[in-house]
Structures are given as structure tokens and as C-alpha cells.
Amino acid sequence: MPELPEVETIKSDLEKVILNQTIIKVDVFRSSVVKQPEINKFKAGLKNARIRQIIRRGKLLVIELETKDKKTLYLTVHLRMTGQLVYGTFDKKARVSFKLSNGGYLCYNDQRTLGELRLVKDWQQLSVVAKMGPEPLSKEFKLNGFSQQLSRRLTKIKPLLLDQHFIAGIGNIYAAEALFLSKIMPDRQACSLTKAEVCLLFKNIKQVLKKAIKCRGSSFSDYRDGHGQLGNFSQHFYVYGRKAQPCLVCKNKIQRIVLGGRGTFFCSKCQK
Ligand SMILES: [Zn+2]
Known about the structure:
This protein is an alpha+beta fold and 272 residues long. Helix content is 26%, strand content 23%. Zinc ion is lined by residues 247, 249-250, 252, 267, 269-270.
């Protein structure tokens, strides 16, 4: 599933090519991905709307539109497992396509069709957004608050990092990498972390996300950037997807367990 760095990469790619374009035609080839409103209203609302800006919140992309009668609407795109939002020529795999005034197409592809598109007046009122935790790369994410929250939690640290109500945008890859860099075992109780470990984790969450954005995200399964290209951060994984391979720090074999229903990679020598 695309996480914060992948969605941020798509956002910045699309900003360069679709801002100020007008949507002249919308085709919905798989209606189940359009969750709100019903298809005809969805299409009518988007037709002749101009793309004003693109926002990212957690793993959600929000495209701000000005409709033909000067109202503001938001197209929200949650890519879930295999969603892609790619600018270019028409793609016959598209589940939804948006033809733009410059002749290009914005195509929503989604092999497993678990993604969700919505056209709404107020995206911040969506329940998924209203309950979302802080953005880890923003000023609202503070060491003090993070530390206090962790000290109250009896849950295991890795599933907690994946909880979008706790912190937004982190998924299975970056949780595993941030915990490795912080030398913390993924199954530790959140409240058992020492002050030093909390500081390290806070710093490494930001660092790993920033580095992954620089590398244009991690390519695994279906992730593609806004131009349909692969990301490069996968080459920098310490633990994710490296079961039985030697740890890059101590040569011990990387292990995989299932924690909170998710595959979890770690080095039992480096992480305590
Ligand atoms: Zn190691």
C-alpha cells in the first residue's frame, strides 16, 4: 500500500502537470471505486472543473477543484492497496479517466479495485480525515506529545505506528525501517520505551520518511509515481522484505513474524 512518501511523490509529480487544467471528460469504467456521490453526480460535478491545488493528508490525496459556477469541490483519492494516479496518455487499464484541457489524461488505475474516490464539499469532514493523527513531517508532530501518548499505551509499538488515528501516513514499510534504525523490537509495548528510545524513534520516523520522499518512494507491488515510474527507496531497505538475508549492520539473519496481522521484519541482534 502506498504510504506517505509514495503519496507525496505522486502529489508533487501531478502538481507539475495538472494544475490549472480543466477536466473536460470523465469516464468511469469501474463504478465500485466511486464511493460518493452516485456516478452521474460525480461526473457532472467534475465536468468543466478547474484543478486548483493538490493536498496530501496521511495517505489521502485531495484535489481541490473550482467548478464552472465558481464553487469549490474536492476530489479525494485513497489508493489503498493497488491504486495508481498517473498522468499521460489514455490507459486502457484505467478504472476512471479524466480528460484534461491540455489533451492529457489523468488515469486512476487499480488492479484490485479497493481504492476509493469521492467528490465532496468539505474533505476535512470525512470521517477518515477527522480522526487522523498528526502529520509526522509537520510541526504539529511534537516529541513531547509523542512521548506522552506512547507512555499511556499498552499496545505493541509497531501496530501502534500503523494506526492512522495515532499518526498519519506510516504503513508497514516505514514502521519496520524506523524501528530498525531506532534499535527497537517491533513487539515492544509502547509504554516500555525509554526516553532515549522515544527520542530516537521520533527522529528516525521523520528521517526515513524524508529520505524515502527524496528517493521518490518505494516500489513494491503496484506503486507507481505520477508519471507511471518506479520509486527507488526499496534499495535502501534495512529490514523490510529481507527475510533470511543478512542484516546490513551485524550480518545476523533478518527475521519475519506476523504482528497485528501484518508481516513484520526485524533483526533480533540489533533491535532490543
Ligand atoms: Zn542486525
